[in-house]
TrEMBL record:
SMART domains: FIST, FIST_C, GGDEF. GO terms for cellular component: plasma membrane. Residues 708-841 form the GGDEF domain. PROSITE patterns: GGDEF. This is Diguanylate cyclase. Pfam families: FIST, FIST_C, GGDEF. SUPFAM superfamilies: GAF domain-like, Nucleotide cyclase. It comes from Halanaerobium praevalens (strain ATCC 33744 / DSM 2228 / GSL). InterPro entries: Diguanylate_Cyclase (IPR050469), FIST_C (IPR019494), FIST_domain_N (IPR013702), GAF-like_dom_sf (IPR029016), GGDEF_dom (IPR000160), Nucleotide_cyclase (IPR029787), Rev_trsase/Diguanyl_cyclase (IPR043128).
């Protein structure tokens, strides 16, 4: 295979490229052009004049890709002369299904790959691949839809005969010695719960879970979404759905009360709102060369224009991602990409795809390692989303606290009424709950419903759905939502409303999921009316647990409940962290004791079984008369709570065992709430690279110390730019990480160390005695001088310059003290670096 390629700013430069090429009937020239239709007509004329024997395939593009560059207003061209293979160009002038049928009929016995280019107006990518998949084939498919860019009103194709605005061009590549490989990278992360498309037509989505799509986006992304849809907000936050693999659809335009997407999204499809995680996109870019088992001679890149625009909006570029592709590169930004995922042809969107080709004869005995440049992974924050998650957690926590107060010592009917009225406090609705309790079925109805409702509800119970179901026009209400509740108890909740939609129901799913626990608690109360203490405990423990989102305090409360209210003599919580078992909290269990090692040794079997253990027969350990073990498995969080009675056996009847299961569920829910709160809180106050506190957090903490006496040190890595220039940004990042670890380990627990920006760090000391602080600083400087940062095969030395200011009187403001320390830092740097200076040169 002979390859010639060129990047041109003008049509004249491309014509010069045509002139330099040797004309041949086995030569395929692909032109990716951002130019106008008039200029592309000139390209066609020049091609026919200078290359009458060659084949031309042209595509309009928003951007062109050439090597690691992504350019607007330019042209990229690649001329391939096949030496051991052949190709055929199939031109079609119909819509999707007819074009697909013509393409599949043109397949030959030795066809290896088909590159499909289609217009973006008349050809529907989803319909095209649906028809292609009707004929089973293992042929590789690649390509994409033409894009219009700034110079055109629609995406189109062209060949030597002219412009093609309706149809497709299919390059059918044949030959037994031709090697072809295709891969893709998505990298979009879900940020919402799963929602169902409830109204859609002709690629336009109007409703998600029964709510207008603009309102849904506004809730997740902020109220200003209405002024920015879809160009700024929804194009950055596409809908992703699962087809056995994660696929995406980007917003194209707002159409009335709906949003048009880049592909078909049918009613009933389950989707999530996603955002482009730059970290994940760049980290996963190595996918583009996975399973590549030959050395490619050319790589054709077909990448979604929406993806490229998004990367630009967050100060990155598609060129960062395609660095991982190990071959000469040419391509364009498409309006959708074609490929084969899990042996099915797919229409992709917001993806980056690559097609590798080669005719080389080579024998590969082992996996090829490609030496391509790795992209620089960056960190980004979703502040609105973080704020929303914290807000939702707090709302749920308040609602559950209120539920605990309303459903304490109450019977089932009263509990059902209170819970039902809590679900949507600011909406008008009615309905009830049907509860199965052993052989008894109990129906709770809102008081405003007539006797007819009993019969209607009973019929719903007899045909109880397995998932949320909507009935229309029920008992003079527009909608009835049937919500099955199957955990802890078997129940069916019916919500009647003229206002609520499916979105409201699903938004409240977390609280609704807890309703069986409260109902179960009430059933226990009725069954154990004589055991007032047990029921009172459930109320108090629920309130006690749900009223805090701080993990350390929560652990203390959990153990207090176990020991104080359940009559146990000791308790301990183990948690697996980084493959090690860690003691989180304990009462009356000594570390290194026989009891401690016994409990620790049985951790794994209890965690894996994921079942509560209540045991009154524990061999070998006399200290255990009764053992309760509660596994706490919450995704990445895996722990076990043990409770021990060492003086006498605790005999639990059926109702008491149910009580323990309910309490265990409350413990899990409270820990999950606290973990979610901790994750979001940490995201907002820490620096992504160094894991130290960030600039904003440090300033906030310092502002709280107004009037206090303390010291501040600012340090700057000497000649930090040299690390990046000599060894690359990854070396610089490694230096920042290792220095951060040293600083964090060197300061006392009450002190605060933060990354203040770039290579600058800041430390808060509670020390104001200059002589003591002087010794602390000297030790710290010596530790830094002894620090060796290993990068690849090199050991990098690090020194810093430091400025220190002491607020001896407590009269300095945080801002003033920072400025003094900064002035001292400049003196230290100007005096030769690798030293420290106190403000006003106090030695």
């Amino acid at each position: 295979m002979q390859l010639e390629k060129e990047k041109c700013q003008s049509v004249e430069e491309l014509i010069d490229f045509f002139k330099r090429l040797k004309d041949s009937p086995v030569q395929l020239v692909q032109v990716f052009s951002t130019k106008s239709e008039i200029l592309n007509q000139r390209i066609i004329s020049a091609f026919n004049r200078y290359l009458p024997l060659s084949t031309l395939v042209g595509i309009s593009a928003e951007e062109v890709i050439y090597e690691n560059q992504v350019k607007l207003k330019e042209i990229a061209a690649a001329a391939l002369c096949f030496e051991k293979s052949s190709f055929k160009l199939l031109k079609t002038d119909a819509k999707s299904k007819q074009n697909a049928n013509k393409i599949m009929k043109s397949i030959e016995t030795d066809t290896k790959a088909i590159i499909i280019y289609s217009d973006d107006k008349y050809n529907n990518g989803d319909q095209l691949v649906e028809t292609l998949n009707q004929k089973q084939t293992d042929i590789l498919i690649a390509g994409g839809q033409a894009a219009w860019g700034q110079a055109n009103e629609q995406g189109y194709l062209f060949d030597r005969d002219g412009i093609i605005k309706k149809g497709s061009l299919a390059l059918i590549l044949n030959g037994s010695q031709l090697k072809a490989h295709w891969n893709y990278n998505l990298g979009w992360e879900s940020i919402s719960r799963e929602m169902e498309i409830t109204q859609a037509e002709d690629q336009i989505v109007y409703e998600l879970d029964g709510r207008n799509i603009f309102e849904v986006y506004a809730e997740f992304l902020g109220e200003d979404i209405f002024e920015q849809v879809p160009s700024a907000a929804t194009s950055k936050f596409p809908l992703v759905f699962n087809k056995g693999f994660k696929n995406a659809r980007a917003a194209v335009d707002s159409v009335g009360k709906g949003i048009k997407f880049s592909g078909e999204l049918e009613e009933g499809t389950k989707v999530k709102i996603a955002y482009g995680s730059l970290n994940k996109i760049l980290k996963d870019s190595v996918r583009l060369r996975e399973e590549l088992n030959f050395h490619p001679e050319i790589a054709f890149i077909y990448s979604c224009s929406g993806r490229s625009n998004y990367l630009k909006s967050i100060n990155s570029n598609l060129s960062e991602e395609i660095k991982a592709i190990p071959a000469p590169k040419v391509g364009f930004s498409t309006n959708g990409e074609y490929g084969v995922v899990d042996q099915k042809i797919q229409f992709l969107n917001m993806t980056n795809t690559v097609l590798y080709l080669s005719e080389k004869e080579e024998i590969i005995h082992k996996k090829i390692k490609f030496n391509t440049e790795k992209p620089q992974v960056k960190t980004e924050n979703l502040f609105h989303l973080s704020k929303k998650v914290v807000s939702e957690l707090e709302t749920i926590n308040k609602k559950m606290t209120k539920a605990n107060k309303l459903t304490g010592n109450t019977k089932v009917e009263k509990t059902a009424a209170n819970l039902f009225n809590l679900i949507f406090e600011n909406n008008n609705y009615s309905g009830g709950i049907i509860i199965k309790e052993e052989a008894l079925t109990r129906i709770y109805l809102e008081e405003n419903l007539s006797a007819e409702a009993y019969d209607v509800f009973h019929s719903f119970w007899e045909n109880k759905p397995e998932e949320i179901t909507i009935k229309k026009e029920v008992l003079s209400f527009k909608k009835a939502f049937l919500i099955p509740l199957n955990q802890e108890i078997e129940a069916l909740m019916i919500i009647l409303s003229n206002e609520l939609d499916l979105y409201d129901i699903k938004k409240s799913h977390f609280f609704i999921e807890q309703i069986p626990n409260y109902l179960k608690k009430s059933i226990l109360y009725e069954n154990l009316e004589r055991n007032v203490a047990s029921l009172s405990t459930l109320e108090q423990t629920s309130d006690f647990l749900y009223s805090t989102l701080e993990l350390d305090l929560l652990y203390d409360r959990i153990l207090d409940i176990i020991v104080a209210t359940m009559g146990m003599s000791a308790a301990i919580i183990f948690k697996k962290e980084a493959f090690k078992l860690k003691t989180i909290q304990s009462i009356n269990i000594e570390k290194e004791s026989e009891l401690y090692y016994y409990l620790k040794g049985h951790y794994q079997e209890i965690a894996e079984a994921d079942q509560i253990v209540i045991n009154n027969e524990v061999e070998f350990i006399e200290e255990i008369k009764t053992l309760i073990a509660i596994p706490i498995n919450l995704g990445d969080y895996q722990g076990v709570l043990y409770a021990i009675q060492s003086k006498y056996k605790q005999l639990f009847n059926g109702n008491q065992r149910k009580f323990i299961r309910t309490l265990a569920n409350q413990i899990r829910v409270s820990i999950r709430n606290a973990l979610n709160h901790q994750k979001v809180k940490k995201l907002s106050v820490t620096d992504g690279l160094t894991k130290l506190y960030n600039h904003s957090y440090f300033d906030q903490e310092l502002a709280k110390k107004d009037g206090e006496k303390y010291s501040v040190a600012i340090l700057d890595i000497d000649n930090f730019k040299d690390f990046n220039d000599l060894y690359g940004h990854q070396a610089g990042d490694q230096v920042l990480k290792k220095l951060s670890e040293l600083l964090k380990s060197a300061v006392r627990q009450k002190d605060i160390v933060a990354r203040y920006g770039g290579e600058e760090f800041v430390i808060y000391f509670s020390i104001i005695e200059q002589e003591i602080l002087l010794q602390v600083i000297k030790r710290l400087m010596e530790k830094i001088r002894n620090l060796e940062v290993c990068f690849e095969d090199k050991k990098l030395g690090v020194t810093v310059s430091m400025g220190i200011a002491i607020n001896k009187s407590g009269n300095d403001s945080a801002e003033s003290l920072i400025k003094k320390a900064d002035n001292a830092l400049y003196i230290a740097k100007g005096s030769g670096r690798d030293q420290f200076k106190f403000h006003k040169n106090i030695d």
